[in-house]
Amino acid sequence: MWRNRTSYPREPAESHEPAGSRAIAGQYRGTFSTAILVIRRRWGLMSERATFGAELRRRRVAAGHTLAWLAERTHYSKGYLSKVETGLATPNPALATLCETELGIPGTLVAFLPHGPKRRRTRPDIRPSGLPSATADFTGRSAEMQRVRRALQADSGVCVVSGMGGVGKTALAVRCAHRLEAGFADGCLFVDLRGYDPEEHTAGPAAVHDRLLRVLGVPAELIPADPDDRAALYRSRLRGRSVLLVLDNAVSAAQVRPLLPAEPKCRVLITSRSRLTTIDDACHVSLDVLPAPAAVELFTALTGLPPGDGVARVAERCGRLPLAIRIAAARLRAHPAWHLGELERRLGAEATRLGELDDGERTLSAAFLLSVRQLTATESRLFGLLALHPGDDFDVHIASAVGGLSLREADRTLERLHDTYLLAQPDVARYQFHDLLRTFAREEVLTGTAERDRATAFRRLAGFAVRSTASADRLLTPQRFQPSIEFEPDVPEQVRLDDDEMALAWFQTEWPNLVALCRAANDRGEHDRCWQLAYFLRGFFFTSKLWDAWIATNRWARESAAALDNRWALATVTANLGVAMVDQGNLDEAADCYREALGLYRDLGDGHGESTMLAHRAWVAHYRGHHAEALHDLRLARVCYERTGNRRNAAITNRGIALVMTALGQPGEAAVLATEILPLFDELGLPLDAAMTQNCLGWAWFRAGREDLATTAYQDAATRAEACGSAYETARAYTGLGNLAAARGERDAAAELWARADETHPVLDPIIVGETRERFARRQANGAATIAAEDFPR
């Protein structure tokens, strides 16, 4: 390191020190001289900058022009010109020439340009470069930078970098341009097209041609007034040149297309908040939010804090959006008394998060607003109304319902919102908000819609959800009673579902959104839609065993039914809550629910409801070991169902009787009963009930010692359960087959089948599932001293 620095000539000096000491001293003196030389050079450059800036300001003020006027005329930003005038930014020959032309003082400013170290040039003429400085803290974009580099090396030589506001498009483009600039013999041209600047007019092609021509050395008086002639001259001036053209903040392809050079040695890098997909020959690089590690790295680089959980949470609350992270870091730096926890607390509340992401000069809301201003009234309205949807994602049907639009109109509007990065598209036909954009839509856009229109839109959305859920439930659980529901005339028709497979697939996609909508309906006072959604979700939740969602929706439904004083709805959702509790093994709370529902049904004189509660209450007794009591209630319920001709409920009750008889030591009679009811479930089109019946039959034959018949029943149960999408019943069948293997002494086969059951559905409560009790009893008998708590997953 020292050897490189001593290459500068040193002055001879006499010394009486020993030769070795003189050598060491000379080495240090040489280093000191070098440092002084570097400081002088840097200070000289700073002085030259200040001299140029002072002369520019003197000339501008003398001519009676403002800084804003000069910025408009030269197409440089007002902030950059201010830094040049104060000596904080280095001017370039192109800027000097432009300022001389606009101020009418040719040849006077160029003489004041700083004379820094010269770079070797491949051409004798001027190599313009108006690139802004590259961002110092830049992380997480190596893959995108490689894609940009490859795109600019391709034949077309045009690359569009697009993304939502604040994602760092300009920073990426400028960094790429700085790295690539040396490869262009005629330099780099940077133009801010102001496509999203609220205080400036969008730069049209003619104005940009005017600026670029002057930078390319064309005198102002020789620039044609006619736009077509100006464009032709622009293309002509680039002929034979090697130039990198950076077009920042393009608003549309129409704005950019006339600026594309015809010269194949030129390359163009474009940034935009729109995808600009109609620029066919371009390579399109879509910029997403930062990966989590890169977001943490950016925040730590800006604040000096070490990475950790708190930093990670702040980065996530900033949506991993670079602009939001920079604003949050700036706020932390501006408040020395704050600690990271205070910033995290301030960003914790979604309702106030956007307000916190404001550092006095930059606001996230302002950045988003620039994008929304490019929308039509219809697009802006739908963007705001979509914030009423409480789920994580949505499709065109939801957009149609909330916006009151036809499917075609909704589809085109969603495409437009996606093209402008106001919506993301995580999957085919699915859309979603970025978290911060959802908050912005709710707080800044939706508030511009009248409250009456918002209420109507939500009712339309909730009505559509109930109608579609009822349709799917009818296919998934035919023969189940459905109450009569009224819908407003403007509620769209339900989603088209042709069979139970489509219904199951629809439920699997939409259930998180339907749960969120059920809660929102309760919160907004749309109580009828709340309990109706919970009611029609019950069949799917029973199949999928999504207990948390099942319980939550029915708790909200109870509140809504009580608010409406709808006693039948209150009794029904309370009973459904009890079923979920039994399924989860919470027998005490289930018993309370059944007791309350039974009283309500009796007060209403609803004999069907009363019989159903007797059957449900019997299950609690059975799981508590009170099998005779359970058998009594089940037989009473069966009499009622058979009297009213309810074949489905009668068959389900008979399956319960078969399980209770097995527990009472009558597995043979239980197997006969289960065998009799199986064809009825097939006839009624109830595949899940058929799978459950085969598991019941397998359990009865197992307890009767008929391993061959039990194996056949369990195998058929597994096939049926897999076909109808019930992981729970599939796992139960595999557990039963594992028990059979263990009974034959085939320990490896048993372990494999039990592992398959655990992989399919790890939660089979031994209180509820006899096969699980048998499995762990077998394991204990085969040498396990104790049964670990994890052997009984809850």
Q: Count structural domains.
A: 6
Major sheet characteristics = 5 strands, parallel
| CATH fold assignment of the largest domain | Rossmann fold
Given helix and strand content, the structural type is mainly alpha
Arrangement of strands in the largest sheet: 2-3-4-1-5
Helix percent reads 55-70%
| Radius of gyration over C-alpha positions, nearest whole angstrom | 37 Å
| CATH superfamily membership of the largest domain | P-loop containing nucleotide triphosphate hydrolases
Question: Number of DSSP strands?
Answer: 7
- Per DSSP, the total helix count is 35
| Residue share in β-strands | under 5%
Q: For the terminal residues, how far apart are their CA atoms?
A: 66 Å
Q: Tell me, what is the CATH class of the largest domain?
A: Alpha Beta
The chain-level mean pLDDT equals: 88
Keywords: TPR repeat
Protein name: HTH cro/C1-type domain-containing protein
Organism: Amycolatopsis minnesotensis
Pfam family, one: NB-ARC
Secondary structure layout plus pairing:
Elements: H1 2-5, H2 19-62, H3 67-74, H4 78-85, H5 93-103, H6 142-153, E1 158-163, H7 169-180, E2 188-192, H8 205-215, H9 227-238, E3 244-250, H10 253-256, E4 267-272, E5 283-287, H11 292-303, H12 309-317, H13 322-334, H14 340-348, H15 350-356, H16 364-372, H17 377-385, H18 396-403, H19 407-419, E6 424-427, E7 430-432, H20 435-445, H21 451-476, H22 500-523, H23 527-544, H24 547-564, H25 567-583, H26 587-604, H27 607-623, H28 627-644, H29 647-663, H30 667-684, H31 687-703, H32 707-724, H33 727-743, H34 747-760, H35 770-781
Parallel strand pairs: 1-4, 1-5, 2-3, 3-4
Antiparallel strand pairs: 6-7
